[in-house]
Amino acid sequence: MAHIAVLGAGSWGTALAVLLCRNGHSVVLWSHRKEHAESMRQNGINERSFPGIRLPESLTYTGDIKEAVSGREIVLFVVPSTALRETAKKAAPHLKGEQLLCCASKGIEEGTLLTQCGILEEILPENPISVLSGPSHAEEVIAGLPTVVVAGSAERFAAERIQEIFMNRTFRVYTSPDVLGIEIGAALKNVIALAAGMSDGLGYGDNAKAALITRGIKEISALAVAMGGCQETLSGLAGTGDLIVTCSSRHSRNRRAGMLIGQGMSAKEAMEEVNMVVEGVYSTRSALALGEKYQVCLPIIEQVYEVIFCGKNVQQAVTELMERDPKAEMEAVCW
Fold first, then answer.
1. What pTM was estimated for this model as a whole?
2. Could you say which of 70, 97, 111, 261 is the most buried, measured as most Cβ atoms within 10 Å of its Cβ?
3. pLDDT tens digits, residue range 85-123?
4. Of residues 189, 209, 268, 293, which has the active-site annotation?
């Protein structure tokens, strides 16, 4: 039995905490709002994320981050990407170097252009760090539906320990040393999902969505490889797998926000309507900045940026993508 702290009591953090409890581990779930932690303690339900779903009796709750992380073998960060740095700084004084950190948040930090694990490495350089990612909607994980993800770390023992604590009959975990590739896939798929949602909002059908997914993974892969990631990672669970589910699922908040934008809402109005963190909006600006830094052409991501931050008409964005200069699909495939 492992002693684990889950930092972040949103839908994903709650689902992972429940999964770990079902696996027989000792788990404490931390919320940055003490009243939320107290509500879950009293009622045994996370009303905002999973109303009506009873949480395991063995799961404990706290709004005190020192209480959450002290003495825990593993600390799982599942907060919004915009809150990761602040949360890591709060946890840092109470962590020891041997505690294993695992990041299940997805995004690129604006300004620094650091991945989520990059932020943890900067603030907590003594701790072993891993990442958990893949096609995994919280609603299906908490329901016990079959799910397959990947655990990555530069240190093999860390990836294999995360694999060990999460694996069960309905939750399969593979391992990988390519942390950067996993994280770029995790962050940028949300941007492409916004585009897929916009396409759905315009009523453009399956052909357009398939093209966005296929050309989207091409953009993500090109950037990841330019940054030092592995091409193979982006054809796996953290790349193609996560992109497919985020672009097509009814559970995807990024797709839903994009759909609302495609139907005429502004990005601000769409985010308010979704009423959850839409990570793709925050990652779009950073993704474009990374493309400029590494000199990688990202036409879909560029158009998403223009729509969200510059007020471009969505149909005009599609027209500009369709009318780009003709080119070969695969530059590496020769006549």
1. 0.93
2. 261
3. 999 999 999 999 999 999 999 999 999 999 999 999 999
4. 189
